Amino acid sequence: MPQRYSGGMRDILDRQKLAQLNDGSPSAALRIDRLDRAIGLLVDHAADIADALREDFGHRPIVASMVTDVAASIEPLKHARRHVRQWMRREPRKVSPGALAWLGARAWIDYQPKGVVGLISPWNFPFNLTFAPLAGILAAGNRAMIKPSEFTPRSSALMQRLIAGAFDETEVAVFTGDADVGAAFAALPFDHLIFTGATSVARHILRAAADNLVPVTLELGGKSPAIVGRDADLDLAARRLMFGKALNAGQVCVAPDYVLVERSKVDALIGALKNATVAMFPTFDGNADYAAIVNARHFDRLCGYLDDAEAKGAVRHPLHVQSGRADERRLVPTVLTGVNDGMAVMQEEIFGPILPIVPYDAIDDAIAYVNAHPRPLSLYYFGDDRVESERVLSRVVAGGVTLNDTIVHLTMDDLPFGGIGPSGMGAYHGVDGFRTFSHARAVYRQSRFDVTALLRPPYGAAIKRLLALKIRR
Known about the structure:
This protein is α/β, with parallel strands linked by helices. It has helices at about 10-25, 30-45, 45-55, 60-90, 100, 130-140, 155-165, 180-185, 200-210, 235-245, 265-280, 295-310, 365-370, 385-395, 430-435, 460-470; strands spanning about 90-95, 105-115, 115-120, 145, 170-175, 190-195, 215-220, 225-230, 260, 315-320, 335, 355-360, 380, 400-405, 425, 440-445. The protein has a 7-stranded mixed β-sheet with strand order 10-11-12-9-8-13-14, sandwiched between helices. A 6-stranded mixed β-sheet has the order 5-4-3-6-7-15, sandwiched between helices. It starts with 8 loop residues before the first helix and ends with a helix. The model has no long low-confidence stretch (mean pLDDT about 95).
């Protein structure tokens, strides 16, 4: 197992747990120091990170990596650094019945570190989807063990080296390796485990964690719909849809997976999507601003979706005049019309630059279509009709929503990020991440008066009078 530590995974876990027990809950100053160290390694090695990602993908735009995996990783760490003292404060709660407060009773919540958190991060944004949850983990006072993806080996090796240089192995440790290492990692008795990745893998993660009753946060994916409302500006909607679909060549868990639009506007939307694509990428082959598909297996998977859909009656609409190069794993953004649920592209999360269009006749038809499928990680609605947008919001259950854009809700530090049902469980980011990785310990301090004497035997008339007051409508 490739690793740089003095012991194996279980040994490091035991040492981290022992250090946490011996040192107790870390001070705000130590938590801030750990957050500072994480920020520092991202700032100091930004170019190295972008280079590693470019090499892992075959091609990935340097600027895009600087945005998504460097800057977007630094911001949640800085947000946690600014707010951690406030988050750590004891939270007063009311006592009941209220008369106990007059007698001196008090109640509150202390947010305690859970201990050691295991973090399994994916290949599409290796640094962001490690350091964004790490912000909450460190702010909550925990230690961490990290298993990054084997599909981006250069990024994983760099992450291991950087973290080993900034943190003692009893604070944060990174373990690289293949799926067998990942399975062994998931089976460790962590105090909490967070996994970001595919729903199919998440089932194995849950089974492994269940043996040790480890609480789990799952950040998955699914088919996130975009609904183009009746009064939406099609050109603006197209530009923002293509921002979400072309970013990292669609290899984003919150990318719009399909678009619902009024039947009469399908052709107009396709034209607007073509214009938006060409505006972002005036040329396609060799364009430095467009990412490659991460590996040959995923490239073949996406081509298979297109072939399967076309064989079953769908029509391809390439959004650029150039076709892309298979030897560079560049796949031109493509719209599909005439799709149905019998096609693989409508059954599986696409995770690539393919955008099926599903026409609807009335907004309730669009809502019904979304609700007939598993609850998505993200929902997007375009339009300024407040009644229609509220109807969509009230009737569709999704992990998170962006109105009149795509993906941007994910970047809000003070909003929780997470899915629901098959798209995930639990949430993090900001104070919600701090609380996810903390134990909310309830504390009650009794008054100086012997209040519970009334509840102790022998029972007499006083307790009967109290029960008569309590047991009534």
